[in-house]
Amino acid sequence: MILVIGDIIVDEFIWGDVSRISPEAPVPVVSVNEIDRRLGGSSNVVRNLHALDTGSAMFGIVGNDEPGEWVKNRLAELNSDNSGVITKTNDRPTAIKTRIIARHQQVVRYDREWTQAARQESHEAIMASLEDLLPQSSATILSDYGKGVLTPDFIRQLIEQMQGSIIAVDPKPEHTDAYAGATVITPNLMEAAAMAGLEAINDDEHAELIAQTLHAKLNLQYVLLTRSERGMTLYDGQQSHHIPTAARDVFDVTGAGDTVIAVFTACLARGDDALTAVKLANQAAGVVVGKVGTATASWSEIEAH
Q: Is 258 considered catalytic here?
């Protein structure tokens, strides 16, 4: 079982067609065909683990509202333990990101969210649930979307609690110092450059420098950089491995980082070496960016890609 801790978001998709421009303003008019909901943010990591036939437990916060109940029910349908999903009253509604998509292209996105730091009582409730499941876990993923669940102090507490096991972090630059002591971080190049205080130049030389800087600064085992069309760079403390992109067609990058950290961590947890893990994560990213919306990749899709 892999523990997933972080910011739970509902990804809502409004699918439609555009055939005219509004007479009220120079914007397209979307005729809605379908409205779809998917687990997003850290809960999309759970979706990806489920696609890999990997057990999980989700820890985070939802509101005392209908979207929050939907999240819990959907997690249960995926056989993910949701006992660590804390329900808050109306002062913290469930975060929702709504994307309007026409002809496979995103027209606009609007967000309904609460980004203030979670209260101590919520962190204590999450920690209490964690302690019950720790003995059954093989790894932990901290999925930091910067929405208030993973505060610097809470991140440090979690990493200290999980020492001796695999701790993978999808980071936010504003919390850089708190990630010290994790097993691996998986930022994109822009995030990594900001975390390292270096220029975000997307070539192998600069990617290696950024990774080396973060590795030393945060006492990590691995740094995995995602680099869009340039693929990925893995630094293991001794050498860098540059993996070319496996993407064939790119329709939507939504949630691709969730796929990367899910596959990489699942591989490490089952005993794969880091280079094998990053190659499979790279292939998985190539699969999901070829789909529209928050997507997942199964082992069969990854192997066939």
A: yes
